[in-house]
Design brief:
- The protein is mainly alpha-helical.
- It has two domains: 6-192 and 299-329, HUPs (Rossmann fold, 3-Layer(aba) Sandwich); 216-295, no CATH class.
- It has 14 helices and four strands.
- The chain has a four-stranded parallel β-sheet.
- Helix 5 (90-101) packs across helix 8 (135-145) and helix 5 (90-101) runs parallel beside helix 14.
- It binds tryptophan.
């Protein structure tokens, strides 16, 4: 491969619809790159094969269209973005996963910290299915089959990007230079929105009591804000910083000024976290109402049309890369 095929590439598992943390941490940085026009068309996909590691197929399949609608609602215009579903290119992803799997040892797979975490969460090595161990290998296949240059993802996914680079390097060393390595997206560290319950962990759909889910009943979400951890008067905490990230993302300029002034009072030692939350509840309520209305106006047909086009492009990229890979490896009968 002489040059990158895709400037910006990212994806999400359809285990449920999106949280506001996904919007701020992943969709927003992708949108910014489109707006400033420095990079080419982004490609964004729904990783339904990755969902099979933890979720029953029917549960994840039903979220595929809603997640794509979330992307479109958040501003990824299908005219300017290639959208697709991972299982549209299941053949190519599976082959690439097999070829990469022989370049990583069982011990290395078991050492990947995200696997250890999954196993800690109520599963054991005896019950976790083995696809879970291949998670990072399949992710490398996703990224490298599209010739991706930048991959905006949350910090928790960085280990998977490291595995991707390792696999690309190992392949190149063994069979000749086929892969260009993905790079971190410039512009500093990725933004992480924390769970609202003060666990210090990232906001995650798997801990719904601390997550603002875009599809949820709005009142349920607002209650979570009312209960959210903040900080003692005069203090800045990671929890409050994270609420401020949400506030910044959903506020108009005028509302931003209001938030700033409340936070200034807070830092001066006044008891104003109640005011902060009231304002946040008001602005977030409006934001969610707008989001849900906009999302409801997107038809399934529009999504299906978008993924048909996007899927063709993803397949063409993947087939090109795969044939270079198979040539380099000397696979004669594929
Ligand atoms: N692991 C990612 C997540 O859970 C989803 C994903 C799968 C992905 N393959 C990818 C993201 C390739 C970026 C690129 O968020």
């Amino acid at each position: 491969m002489k040059k990158y095929k895709t400037d910006i590439f990212t994806g999400m598992r359809p285990t449920s619809s999106m949280s506001i943390g996904n919007l701020i941490g992943v969709v927003e940085p992708t949108l910014r790159t489109i707006e400033d026009g420095s990079l080419g068309r982004p490609m964004v996909f729904v990783a339904d094969l990755h969902s099979l590691t933890t979720t029953e197929p029917e549960d994840s399949q039903k979220n595929v269209i809603p997640v794509i609608k979330d992307y479109i609602t958040a501003g990824l215009d299908p005219e300017k973005t290639d959208l697709f579903v991972q299982s549209q290119i299941a053949d190519e992803v599976s082959k690439m996963t097999i070829y990469f799997s022989r370049l990583i040892t069982v011990a290395e797979l078991l050492r990947v910290p995200t696997l250890k975490e999954k196993i800690k969460k109520g599963q054991s090595e005896a019950t976790a299915n083995s696809l879970l161990a291949f998670y990072p290998v399949m992710m490398a296949a996703d990224i490298l089959l599209q010739g991706s240059k930048f991959v905006p993802v949350g910090k928790d996914q960085y280990v998977h990007l490291e595995v991707t680079c390792d696999l690309a390097n190992r392949f190149n060393k063994k069979y000749g230079d086929v892969f260009l390595l993905p790079k971190p997206l410039e512009g500093g560290d990725p933004i992480t929105v924390l769970s609202l319950i003060g666990s210090g962990k990232k906001m995650s759909k798997s801990e719904p009591s601390g997550a603002i889910l875009l599809d949820d009943d709005i009142e349920v979400s607002l209650k979570k804000i009312k209960k959210a951890k903040t900080a003692f008067a005069g203090d800045m905490s990671e929890d409050l910083k994270s609420l401020k990230l949400i506030a910044d993302y959903i506020s108009s300029d005028e509302e931003k000024v209001k938030f700033e002034s409340i936070l200034q009072k807070h830092l001066d030692g006044q008891q104003v976290m109640g005011d902060f939350k009231n304002l946040l509840v008001e602005v977030l309520g409006e934001f969610l109402k707008d989001f849900q209305k906009k999302k409801a106006s997107i038809s399934d047909e529009c999504v299906l049309e978008a993924i048909e086009k996007g899927g063709k492009k993803a397949k063409a990229n993947a087939q090109e890369v795969l044939s270079e890979v198979e040539n380099a490896m000397g696979m004669r009968y594929v």
